[in-house]
């Protein structure tokens, strides 16, 4: 699978150059506003006057609220799931110990 439109790869971030399709077709790359722009020809060192790190920084600033909310809900979800599933997990682990698989399989 080749480069995806609007996705900045780790290689592009580290080198500052952007992928261009080998068939000569234009590649749609990332921009600070999240909208794609097209590049035809040789890879460039910057994108629209911004470096790769500036683009990532801008996207991080634009999506900071989403990142915080996602992180909070993910950790809360795991805590709730662990509390809800504690008794069934204990019963299943006990059953596995009783049949002799307790040291091999644990939930």
SSE layout:
Blueprint: H1 10-15, E1 27-29, E2 37-39, H2 52-62, H3 64-84, H4 86-98
Question: Which properties best describe this structure?
Answer:
single chain; mainly alpha; 107 residues; 2 strands
Structural class computed from helices and strand pairing: mainly alpha
Q: What general form does the structure show?
A: elongated
Spatial order of the strands forming the largest sheet: 1-2
Strand proportion, as a percent range, falls in 5-15%
Specify the biggest β-sheet: 2 strands, antiparallel
First and last CA, distance: 35 Å
Give the radius of gyration: 23 Å
Mean pLDDT: 74
Q: How many strand units?
A: 2
Encode the helix/strand succession as letters: HEEHHH
- The tally of helices reads 4
Low-confidence stretches: 22-27, 38-46
Q: Estimate the helix proportion, in percent.
A: 40-55%
Overview of this protein structure:
The chain has 107 residues and is mainly α. It has 4 helices and 2 strands, in the order αββααα. The chain has helices at 10-15, 52-62, 64-84, 86-98; strands at residues 27-29, 37-39. The chain has a two-stranded antiparallel sheet. Strand 1 and strand 2 form a beta hairpin. The radius of gyration is 23 Å and the shape is elongated. It starts with 9 loop residues before the first helix and ends in a 9-residue tail after the last helix. Mean pLDDT is 74; it is low at 22-27 and 38-46.
């Amino acid at each position: 699978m080749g480069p995806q439109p609007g996705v900045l790869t780790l290689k592009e971030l580290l080198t500052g150059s952007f992928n261009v399709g080998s068939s000569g077709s234009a590649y749609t790359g990332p921009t600070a506003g999240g909208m794609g722009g097209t590049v035809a020809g040789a890879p460039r060192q910057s994108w629209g006057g911004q470096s790769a790190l500036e683009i990532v920084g801008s996207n991080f600033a634009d999506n900071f609220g989403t990142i915080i909310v996602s992180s909070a809900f993910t950790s809360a979800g795991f805590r709730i799931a662990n509390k809800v599933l504690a008794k069934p997990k204990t019963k299943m682990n006990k059953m596995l110990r009783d049949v002799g698989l307790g040291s091999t399989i644990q939930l």
